[in-house]
């Protein structure tokens, strides 16, 4: 069987962090070509007093100085600022970019390779149409015309990049690609379990952020651990109720996976939404949410 080419579409904090995991596995497993391509939007950054293109600087240093500073990626990770070049030979596309850019990115990248499959790590991008809650993976599937799995979990990007142990959940329908995709992500520090429940996995990844806002409000009001624990438990129950309303077939076991309760706990104690919500309360509403995000994130 021909070795598979992998491209990561997106080079932000999480995109670069997951690239460290994938690069280790493409080098370790004979199923993949060693080289990992990362589509990197060609922006300019200040580096040692000089303006440089981020992609050029990354290819020289193997460090994304803007989005994942302090982490050096393996030499076989290559940044490609030309979107069409980045994706044209890919057998597997890993989507890690803000959901609002998905449609435009797909329209600009041209035809993908026959037999290509995708994995979405995008949290959010939910659309309500005709009483049905559409997923970001649904949009990708429609635009790309091929299989799209999802990967979600309790994964703080910097901790993943630093090799701290964590888990993730792969939601996948087509069993044909399951073993290969698990192999692409799973390693000693990043354990992956596959489940046949794409809506459950993806919606847990999106809805936990709503509960995390409540956790941040709790922290800002100086409520104790009992109150925060109750909020997390009630939040998880409401997540289940909400998801089941739109997807009755969702499995109970999914909520006990990394994408469910584990991701919820991590986000309610260390996530960006929690952090901003606490700052909003402590500032007594004097600062706008945009100002808080700019200051803290």
What would your notes on this structure say?
By secondary structure, the chain is an alpha/beta fold. The chain contains 12 helices and 12 strands. An 8-stranded mixed beta sheet has the order 5-2-1-6-7-10-11-12, sandwiched between helices. It has a two-stranded antiparallel ribbon with strand order 3-4. Helix 8 packs antiparallel against helix 9 and helix 10 (258-270) packs parallel to helix 11. The chain is globular.
Structural class: alpha/beta
* Strand line-up in the sheet with most strands: 5-2-1-6-7-10-11-12
Number of helices: 12
End-to-end distance = 44 Å
Order of helices and strands: EHEEEHEHEHEEEHEHEHEHHHHH
Which stretches are poorly predicted, pLDDT < 50 over at least 5 residues? none
Shape: globular
Mean pLDDT: 96
Could you state the oligomeric state of the chains shown?
single chain
**Number of beta-strand segments:** 12
Q: Radius of gyration, Cα only, in angstroms?
A: 19 Å
Strand content: 15-25%
Helix content: 40-55%
Largest sheet: 8 strands, mixed
Characteristics:
297 residues; alpha/beta; eight-stranded mixed beta sheet; two-stranded antiparallel sheet; 12 strands; globular
Give the helix/strand layout.
Blueprint: E1 4-9, H1 13-28, E2 32-39, E3 44-47, E4 50-53, H2 54-61, E5 77-80, H3 83-87, E6 92-95, H4 102-108, E7 117-120, E8 127-129, E9 132-134, H5 136-144, E10 148-152, H6 157-161, E11 166-171, H7 178-185, E12 190-195, H8 198-220, H9 225-246, H10 258-270, H11 272-282, H12 289-296
Parallel strand pairs: 1-2, 1-6, 2-5, 6-7, 7-10, 11-12
Antiparallel strand pairs: 3-4, 8-9, 10-11
Helix pairs in contact: 4-5, 8-9, 8-10, 8-11, 10-11, 11-12
């Amino acid at each position: 069987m021909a070795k598979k080419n992998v491209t990561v579409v997106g080079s932000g904090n999480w995109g670069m962090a997951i690239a460290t995991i994938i690069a280790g596995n493409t080098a370790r497993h004979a199923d993949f070509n060693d080289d990992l391509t990362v589509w990197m939007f060609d922006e300019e950054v200040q580096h040692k007093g000089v303006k440089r293109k981020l992609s050029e600087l990354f290819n020289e240093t193997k460090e994304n100085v803007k989005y994942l500073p302090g982490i050096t990626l393996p030499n076989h990770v290559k940044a490609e600022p030309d979107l069409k070049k980045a994706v044209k030979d890919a057998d597997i596309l890993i989507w890690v970019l803000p959901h609002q850019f998905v449609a435009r990115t797909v329209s600009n990248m041209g035809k993908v390779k026959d037999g290509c499959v995708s994995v979405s790590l995008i949290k959010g991008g939910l659309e309500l149409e005709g009483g049905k809650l559409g997923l970001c993976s649904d949009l990708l599937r429609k635009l790309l015309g091929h299989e799209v799995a999802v990967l979600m979990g309790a994964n703080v990007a910097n901790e993943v990049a630093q090799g701290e142990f964590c888990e993730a959940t792969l939601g996948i329908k087509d069993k044909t690609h399951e073993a290969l995709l698990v192999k692409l992500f799973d390693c000693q520090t990043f354990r992956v379990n596959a489940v046949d429940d794409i809506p459950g996995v993806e919606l847990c990844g999106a809805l936990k952020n709503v509960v995390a806002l409540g956790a941040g409000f709790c922290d800002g009001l100086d409520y104790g651990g009992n109150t925060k624990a109750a909020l997390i438990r009630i939040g998880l129950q409401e997540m289940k109720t909400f998801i089941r309303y739109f997807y009755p077939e969702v499995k109970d076991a999914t909520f006990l996976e990394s994408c469910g309760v584990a991701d919820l706990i991590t986000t309610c104690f260390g996530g960006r939404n929690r952090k901003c919500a606490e700052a909003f309360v402590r500032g007594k509403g004097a600062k706008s949410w945009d100002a808080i995000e700019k200051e803290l994130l």
